[in-house]
Amino acid sequence: MRFRTFGAAHAALLFTFIAVWATWPLARGLTHDVAWDLGDPVLVIWALAWNCSQLLAILGGDAGRAATYFDANIFSPAPHTLAYSEHFIGQSLQVLPVYALTGNAVLCYNLLYLSTFVLSGVGTFLLVRTLTGSRTAGLTAGLLFAVIVSANEFVVSLFVSNRITEILPVAMFSYVVNYTDPTIAAMSSLFIGLTFAAVWLADRFFGLAAVFLLDLDR
Fold first, then answer.
1. Residues 5-28: what's their mean pLDDT?
2. What's the number of domains the chain is made of?
3. N or C: which end of the chain has fewer CB within 10 A?
4. What is the pLDDT of residue 157?
5. Residue 218 lies in a domain
């Protein structure tokens, strides 16, 4: 395969291998091992199990479950307890077929966990390739982003704990492709440059403390 034919499908395959390698030996215990720790992942696993059970019951004809959907089996007798934290309904829809076949919420969580690495890498690859026109730049950025363990103690893999279903680079790529106006982008870049220039000139000739009336002797 020539590199100029390297596309999203190839990137997805590459980042899948990287995700398995980076999280090994998780792949050996997808059905029973918990990724990362026994804190938030266990909460997510519980929410996935509750959501999938409710959704399958509703799809099976038990429409009454819809009225009590958020009355989860926690903090009884308080109502609507599923909404006390992230509800993870979007993620539950993603793994609903897996849960329907296996009934294993741990497996569902681990597949979501691994998918965050893949989506992060592929999303970054597509985003940077679109912005630069370079597959090399896109792949390099994707590799760097996908294998980050943490940035300022924020674990990238914990993007799964967000109510949205898109990883940040995927959302950015979608916005660039569907909503970016080149004229607005150019004007925004110009205003950003002018702002930096104004701040530099103010600091150069007056000092930022004087501009903002700050008393630095306190």
1. 86
2. 2
3. C
4. 45
5. no
Q: What is the 3-state secondary structure (H, E, C) of 50-82?
A: HHHHHHHHHHCCCHHHHCCCCCCCCCCCCCCHH
In which region does residue 36 sit, left (phi positive, over 0), alpha (psi from -120 to 50) or beta (all else)? left
| Residue 177 included in any domain | no
Q: Is residue 176 part of a domain?
A: no
Tokens of 55: 């959704």
Residues 186 and 123 in one domain: no
pTM of the full structure: 0.70
Distance, CA of 138 to CA of 13 (rounded, Å)? 15
Q: What is the domain extent for residue 190?
A: 182-211
**Pair (160, 186) in one structural domain:** no
Q: Specify the pLDDT at position 123.
A: 85
The pLDDT of residue 56: 94
* C-alpha distance across the termini of the chain, in Å: 65
Does residue 2 or residue 24 have the better pLDDT? 24
